[in-house]
Design a protein that fits this description.
Blueprint lengths: L2 E5 L4 H12 L3 E6 L2 H15 L3 E5 L7 H12 L3 E6 L14 H28 L3 E6 L12 H20 L5 E6 L8 H4 L6 H5 L4 H14 L3 E2 L3 H10 L4 H13 L3
Parallel strand pairs: 1-2, 1-4, 2-3, 4-5, 5-6, 6-7
Helix pairs in contact: 1-2, 1-8, 3-4, 4-5
The site of NADP nicotinamide-adenine-dinucleotide phosphate has 30 residues, from helix 1 and helix 6.
C-alpha cells in the first residue's frame, strides 16, 4: 500500500491526515515534537486500522532535522511513497514588536524543513516512478499578510515551490499538491496568539473536512486544493484587486485578532 510520512501529526490537520492514510490501509510515520501525543496517535491508528504506525520525535526547527528524519527512515527500511509536509505555525503581531527568534524558527519549520524533506525523499519517488507529495500551505499563500507578515510570506513560498515542482515533475509519476485552507478549527490560533472574534471562530473550517480535501486532492494529483467554495471565490476575487487593497483588507481582519 505504501508508507506515508506526515509531519505535525500529533494534532490538528496532520493528525487527521494520518487517520485518513491509516483508514486507507497505509502504514504511517508520524513526526512532531510531543512524544506522548505522537505515541497516543500511533497506538490509536494501529488499534483502529490494523496498520503499522511509527513515530519520529523531532523538532523540525533544529538544524539537520530533515536529515535525521530521512536517515531514521533509511535505517529502519521505511520507504516513503507519500510525503506530507504539514508541520507549521504562525505568529500574530506587528513586525516591529514580534520575536525574531520565533520568526526565524517559523521560517525553518514552514520553509526550510519542508524544502529539505522534499529534496531528500523525492529522488526515490522519481526513481520508482510513483509518489505523492502534499505540502500544507494556506489561504495566506495568495496574499500579503500585515500583522502576520512572516507567516504569510512562508506560505507564499510553499505555494510557489509546490506549483513549480509539480510542473517540473510532470511525466515522472510523482505529483505535488498544495493544500490551502482558510481558518480551520485547530490549536493553530492559540499557538499563533490570535484572539479570534466569535464570528471568525464560527466560520472556521472543520479539521476533518480540510484533511479529507487535501487527501483527495493529493491522491488525484491536483496542484492546488482550497477547501470551501467561499474561500475559492475569495482567492479568485483577489486576482482582480490591487495587491495593496488586498493587504488593507487582510490588515483590517488581522487587527480584530490582536
Ligand atoms: N488552522 C488553521 O487555521 C490553518 C490554516 C491554514 C493553514 N494551516 C497550516 O496547517 C498546518 C497544520 O496546522 P494545524 O492547524 O493543524 O495546527 P496545530 O493543531 O497547531 O498543529 C501543528 C502541528 O505541527 C507540529 N509542529 C509545530 N512546530 C513543530 C516543530 N518545530 N517541529 C515538529 N513539528 C512541529 C505540531 O506538533 P508538536 O507541537 O508536537 O511538535 C502539530 O502536530 C500548518 O502548516 C499551518 O500553517 C493552518
Amino acid at each position: 500500500m505504501g508508507i506515508a510520512l506526515i509531519t505535525g501529526a500529533s494534532e490538528g490537520i496532520g493528525k487527521e491526515l494520518a487517520t485518513l492514510f491509516a483508514a486507507a490501509g497505509h502504514d504511517v510515520v508520524l513526526v512532531a515534537r510531543d512524544q506522548a501525543k505522537l505515541h497516543a496517535v500511533a497506538q490509536s491508528l494501529k488499534k483502529n486500522h490494523g496498520i503499522q504506525a511509527h513515530v519520529i520525535v523531532q523538532d523540525l526547527g533544529q538544524p539537520h532535522a530533515a536529515e535525521t528524519v530521512y536517515r531514521t527512515c533509511q535505517t529502519n527500511g521505511w520507504t516513503i511513497d507519500y510525503l506530507v509536509n504539514n508541520a507549521g505555525f504562525g505568529l500574530l503581531g506587528p513586525f516591529t514588536t514580534t520575536n525574531l527568534s520565533v520568526e526565524a524558527d517559523m521560517i525553518t519549520v514552514n520553509v526550510t524543513a519542508l524544502t529539505q524533506l522534499t529534496k531528500l525523499f523525492v529522488p526515490h519517488m522519481v526513481a520508482s516512478r510513483s509518489g505523492r507529495i502534499l505540502q500544507v500551505a494556506s489561504l495566506a499563500s495568495f496574499m500579503p499578510g500585515p500583522l502576520m507578515s512572516v507567516y504569510y510570506a512562508t506560505k507564499a513560498y510553499v505555494l510557489s515551490f509546490s506549483e513549480a515542482l509539480q510542473q517540473e515533475l510532470r511525466g515522472t509519476g510523482v505529483t505535488v499538491t498544495a493544500l490551502c485552507p482558510g481558518p480551520t478549527n485547530t490549536k493553530f490560533k492559540h499557538r499563533a496568539k490570535m484572539n479570534n472574534p466569535p464570528h471568525v471562530d464560527k466560520s472556521a473550517l472543520d479539521v476533518r473536512r480540510v484533511a479529507q480535501a487535501g487527501f483527495n486532492g493529493m491522491m488525484k494529483g491536483q496542484t492546488v486544493v482550497i477547501p470551501g467554495l467561499a474561500y475559492r471565490f475569495f482567492v479568485f476575487a483577489c486576482r482582480f484587486l490591487p495587491r495593496s487593497w488586498v493587504a488593507r483588507i487582510v490588515h483590517f481582519n488581522q487587527k480584530q485578532r490582536l
